[in-house]
Amino acid sequence: MNKVELRDRFFNRYKGLIRTEMIPYQWKVLNDEIDITIERERNDDSIPNEKSHVIENFRIAAGRKKGNHYGWVFQDSDLYKWLEAAAYTLREKMDEELKCLADDVVDLISEAQEENGYLDTYFTIEEPDQKYKRLWESHELYCAGHFIEAAVAYYEAVGNQKVLKTACKLADHIDSVFGDEDGKIHGYDGHEEVEIGLMRLYRLTQNERYLKLARYFLFVRGTDCDAMNSKHLPLAYYQAHLPVLEQDTAEGHAVRLVYLCTAMADAACETGDEKLLSACRRLWKSIVNRRMYITGGIGSTVSGEAFTLDYDLPNDTMYCETCASVGLVFFAYRMLMTEEKGEYGDVMERVLYNTVLGGVALDGKHFFYVNPLEVVPGKSSKDPLKSHVKCVRPQWLGCACCPPNLARLLASVEQYVFVQKKNKLFVNLFVECKGSFEIEDGILEIELKTGYPWDGCVEIKLNYSGTASVCLGIRVPSWSDTFDAEINHESTAFETKDGFIYINQVFKEDTIHLKLDMGAKRWYAHPMVENDLGKFAVTRGPFVYCLEEADNGKNLHLLSVEKQEPFEYEFEETLLGGVGIITASGWKAEADQEEEGLYRKSDSAVKKVKTKIKWIPYYSWANRGENEMRVWVREDNLC
After folding, report:
1. Catalytic, out of 401, 402, 433, 546
2. Catalytic one among 56, 305, 349, 549?
3. Ranges for the Non-reducing end beta-L-arabinofuranosidase-like GH127 middle domain (predicted)?
């Protein structure tokens, strides 16, 4: 069995947070055992925020308690994602107390499942006669997909037979209800996810029916279905405006789109479907070339949590939901599994180190739903159109999809480091770890040692027990203007292609050294991104940086930096858990708010004073109380 053991200082801190803080904290929230403030994502009184009630919903559906369902119709998925995070944590390190909790959860879910395999607490409790009758909004298959994903993860982690049996029973039930055969429902869920779960279950069980059903749900989307001809939002919101093979642009709800793309790439990888892969490539380019923020965030508007149009990337009214970033990591990784292009790893890394990590506070118990690139506290509190833009992370959210989604991704981060394809092994992320892979007639042992993400030096040790030649591909991030690589301390000419360097040989106690360019860099948006014209953003390594009021005072929009001004870098061990900071000399315009006159004929009277400007990594902002933040900074062209 292939396995990867994480030894990385940076990510092990998060893994420790998940084990000691996030999973226990989220368990208490799901059980309503903790006194916290549950915030609405925006000014919408219909958002339920009195309690979680997730576990209680399952107890009622299982017949253990009496009562009504509370919360969103998709509330079940919060527990499923928690179970998946627990599975990855147990896979890494067995904890009998956590396993006991998780086993009890499996028992509870099994009891809530109906005899025919149906599983959804809302419809079991409240509307049993409405099952699968409101597919555009019911989220029944969405929740099923999350349970199946969790079940596969938990079975693989601890060998629990009941969870696998429950998942197969659910998948078999769905297969008996949906399909293109006469007498079955011709339809699909408004929120993609079941397709991902079915693909995972297929890989585990090799049951062809699950692959066939996943493909059915993919290809029926966007076609005329009686089950979808009811009142709902525009079809593009659900990615149902066209069949998937005809879709060219990223449309609609951002999370749904990347979940759809994840399943499409997964199915293309398994079946070699070139048409499906071509559709994935088109949607990928639409996202990353024209509709993605520099932080890796996606979703430009609060209305529908959706994409809008090319180059429309407002910094202070965007959505950039944490779940969308999690989904983009999934999509990027599936594309890496399908074809060897470094750009997929580049985006996966950008998203992971910025918007994914930015979604959780350094204490592991506060979470962002929305990840803005510009915040002014007064505007967020008084402008109704910015009510979704929080200045500090809430303890919990009325729609709590993001916290457990973060937990399950970060708990499994080691599985995104490598991709294996027959006799090829690709290094996609640079984290300290040790892995072993079955390749041809032997086992390849690989060990990464590095100070990444703060340091660009990576040491890769390899030893192969077999006799065959192994092809090792190492991603060279596109942000690294230059790189040096050598094997066994000797420089050599490496084959380079599509963002990877390649080494083909029989590895016997060999060592590769890679050195990346970690200098701080300015980045400029495409001229069509009107919100960023005349501005620049700062990056170093995989991190996007931002300004925060705590370091630079109020009114960050008054700051500017000359075009040729150099950056200085320093690591501050005691700041924000230890971060690398960037500084530069800049200017701050003086603004007298008491001065009469809102407008003037000339700006020549505006005075600027020299000041030191300080950037911190974007992921670490909003951990020092409520204050301003911005990513894009004005650039001066002064002599």
Report:
1. 401
2. 305
3. 425-518
